[in-house]
Amino acid sequence: MQEPGAALRSCTQVRFTSPGSQPSPVSRVPCTANLSAASPGRNPAMATNTTKPLCPLLEQMTQLQSHSNSSIRYIDYVSVLVHAVASLLGLVENGLILFVVGCRMRQTVVTTWVLHLALSDLLATASLPFFTYFLAVGHTWELGTTLCKLHSSIFFLNMFASGFLLSAISLDRCLQVVRPVWAQNHRTVAAAHKVCLGLWALAVLNTVPYFLFRDTIPRRDGRIMCYYNVLLLSPGSDRDATCNSRQAALAISKFLLAFLVPLAIIASSHATVSVQLRHRGRRRSSRFVRLVAAVVAAFALCWGPYHVFSLLEARAHANASLRPLVMRGLPFVSSLAFINSVINPLLYVLTCPDVLHKLRRSLRSVLESVLVDDSELGSLGSSRRRRASSAACSPGACRLSQRGPLRLLGCLQGERGVSPPRGRARSQDERGPQSSEPMIASS
What secondary structure letter does DSSP report for 225? Predict the structure, then answer.
C-alpha cells in the first residue's frame, strides 16, 4: 500500500526534474489528480476543485508548503491569540454600543449614524472567530464553501458599509452648516434610517461579486484555501487576459467606492464646514466632530494598506516579481482591516474627557455626552444655548458650571424629574420615536 505522501513526492519529482524549467500546462493535470487521490481524509467532492482553472497568482499560492520552523509556529500562536482577543473584544464592545445607543438613549440623527456603524462593526467581529479558527488549525479552511463565501462577504460588506456611512455622516454635518433651514425641516430620525437602509443596499450590491467568486481551493500540501477565484464563472478562452481584467476591475472598484471616494467626500465636507464657520466667526468644539475625525483617521489607517495591497495583487497576475510580496503582505493587512471594527467602539468612549470617571458613573452618560450635535452648527445654535442656560435645576440636584451646554446636558440627564423649558421648538435631531426620557436639547 502506498504511503499518503508518496503520490505527492512522485508528483514533485515529475514536475521539477529539470531545474529552472517551467512545467507545461499539460503536466499539471495528472499532478493535481495524484494529489487529490493521495490526500488522506480528503472529501472526494473536493477533487472537482482541482480541475478548475486558476489565475497565475492563485496557482502559485496552491504550491506553498506548510512550515515546521519553530519561529514560524511561534508567530502562528501569537497570531491566533491576537485574533481571538480581538474577536472577543469586538463582540463585547460593539454589542454594548448597540445596546446602549439603540435601547438606552433617546434616538437622534447622530445616534442613528453610530447605531448603523456599530452594527456593521458587529457583523465584522462576529465573522472574525471563523478566521481565528482557520489560523488555529494550521491555515486551512475546514468549514466548507458556503461559510467561506459568507465569511468573506461580511468582510467586504463591512468595508463598503463603513465607507458609505462615514460619508453620510460628513455630508450630514455639512448640510447643517450650509443649509440650516433645509436641515431643520428635513433632518429627521426616520430620514436618517432610510438613508442608512439605502447605503446598506448599495453595500450589499457591491459585495455580490466577491460572494460569487469566492471558493475553496486545495493546496498541494493538503490544506484548503478560502480565496476568490475570478475564473470560477465563465473563465473565457484567454486565461491571463480574463484574470487581469477581472482582478483589476475588483481592485479598482473597491478602492474607489470603499476608500478614495468616501475620503474625498469626508475631506471636502469638513473643509466646507470649516470655511463656513470661519466666515461666521465661530469655532468647532463639538465632541462629536472630534469623534468623527478619530473614526475617519482609524478607517484610513486600517483600510489604506489593504487597498494598496489589493492594487498590487491585481498587478501581480501579470508581474511575477510582485507575487511574493502580495502573498506575504495580504494576510497582515487583512487582519489590520478587521481590527478597525474593534477600534471604533473604543473611540466612541475615549473621545469623551475624564473617561474613567464617567465610566464609573454610566456608560450611557458617556455616550450621550459624546453623541450630541454640535451646538454651534446651524442658525439656531446661539438661541438654543440661551434657552438652555435659562433652564433651572431643582435645589441640590446639580451644579452648573461655565463649560457650556454640554455640561448642562449632562446635568439635566442626571435629574429625571426636570422638564425642558416650555415653548422651545424641538430640534430637527429629536424628531422620531418618543421615549419616556425628558426631552433635552440636542443641538
Answer: E
